[in-house]
Amino acid sequence: MRLSEVCEFLDEYLEIWKYQDVSNNGLQVEGNREVEKIAFAVDACMESFRAARMNGADVLIVHHGMIWGGIDYVRGIVKKRIEYLLKNGISLYAAHLPLDAHREVGNNATILRRVGAEPEEEFGEYKGVKIGYSAEMSSPVSVTAIADKLGPAKILPFGREKVRRVAAVSGKGSFAINEAIEKGIELLITGEPEHEAYHLAKEGGINVIFLGHYESEKFGVESLMKVVAEKLGLETVFIDIPTNL
Hints:
- Strand 5 and strand 6 form a beta hairpin.
- The chain has a six-stranded mixed β-sheet with strand order 5-6-8-9-10-7, with helices on both faces. A five-stranded mixed β-sheet has the order 1-4-3-2-11, sandwiched between helices.
- The protein has two domains: 93 residues, 3-Layer(aba) Sandwich (Udp-n-acetylmuramoylalanyl-d-glutamate--2,6- Diaminopimelate Ligase, Chain: A, domain 1); 113 residues, 3-Layer(aba) Sandwich (Udp-n-acetylmuramoylalanyl-d-glutamate--2,6- Diaminopimelate Ligase, Chain: A, domain 1), CATH 3.40.1390.30.
- The chain is an alpha/beta fold.
- The protein is 35% helix and 26% strand.
- The two termini are 36 Å apart.
């Protein structure tokens, strides 16, 4: 399959034009024209580039791309990364906010489905766009039981022991705590722990689950990988490079 066909599918499916993002979403580095295998990872870095090459991938699709607003200089680490991709014919495609917000394969929709809730209202306004979702459990569930379905987590247990109204904003989503309190959300699931979140959550009487930035944003990449394999009929591989952050 041609690279242009792969990018056309991704651009349309993820609706990348809808988002004002610091990330340059879409094809960031153009490699070989023909694509047989696609690798998926959370981060664009030399480790994921090398793993893509070792796995024989022609394209690497990531959540955190390499180009954020533009490239000031092609030197140092930037030079090495671009040089490696071009030398090995590997294309780099990034989907940042589009993969947070997508209702089918997005990080936040997938997180909610993982804990047994169907994404309902858009939630978590970031730069004028809602990138998360809120939902309601069919019956009250303990916060610890929900956390167990998502993997190792840090919990701020400042709300009810059992909850029904939950919301998810992956990555650095503590900015949504005030919105969650205002909307009567009983549990916010996010990624990166931030110091200021502690007192906000405590004073607001809300539970917060922190999965870690990386772990909270594997969900969308893995979900998108399944869709690409099914829709495009191409071989895929997930490259797991946890940062423990």
